[in-house]
What we know:
The complex is a heterodimer of chains A (63) and B (188).
Chain A: H1 8-26, H2 34-51, E1 61-62
Helix pairs in contact in A: 1-2
Chain B: E1 4-5, H1 7-10, H2 13-20, H3 22-33, H4 37-81, H5 92-111, H6 121-127, H7 132-143, H8 148-155, H9 159-187
Helix pairs in contact in B: 3-4, 6-9, 8-9
Amino acid sequence: xxxxxxxxxxxxxxxxxxxxxxxxxxxxxxxxxxxxxxxxxxxxxxxxxxxxxxxxxxxxxxx
Amino acid sequence: xxxxxxxxxxxxxxxxxxxxxxxxxxxxxxxxxxxxxxxxxxxxxxxxxxxxxxxxxxxxxxxxxxxxxxxxxxxxxxxxxxxxxxxxxxxxxxxxxxxxxxxxxxxxxxxxxxxxxxxxxxxxxxxxxxxxxxxxxxxxxxxxxxxxxxxxxxxxxxxxxxxxxxxxxxxxxxxxxxxxxxxxxxxx
Lengths: 63, 188
């Protein structure tokens, strides 16, 4: 999955980082709907990582 | 060739966290030991990637919080809209169940021996001049001690209607009772 912002490996890394956040967010709804919410949040994250363009961060150096 | 660091970034917590990663730390050390263009690019590229990742994670963290709340709200809304028929308090089925309950109560009254509650023979006879419905109202009010509101719920009418009927029944009973008593007195 090639994106403007992140390559596949980076996306995987980000997904690993956000997994505990997703699990925490699942507590917001009843257990019946947690699987559905989990899928929804991951889909949303993937969409965001793939489509939303990022502003170039500031450089560590002054040109 | 030496480059100038952007101290704003260098002193940021982002950069400190960036260095916690072994590979990033190595890139930084490499650059400090050997400040070539290549090392500078490698370090800068890795740092920019790290910042982008941090921004994405921080944004997603906030989004997850709000999105999970929104999701739960929508689910609850949907659940309320699509209640099972028996979950709805005012559904026709529940209403019919109530009617069945009321019907059962009325049937019980039918089965119950109303005569057992009437000790006065004249009054008993007067009561038998009343309609079935009027007798039931009297039974519910005076024997079962139900309120007008409860009786109204059984007959599915207003409380005022029951109150009015009851007054009417009493006056009718009085008329009949007085008349019969008068006739009984005349016999003697």
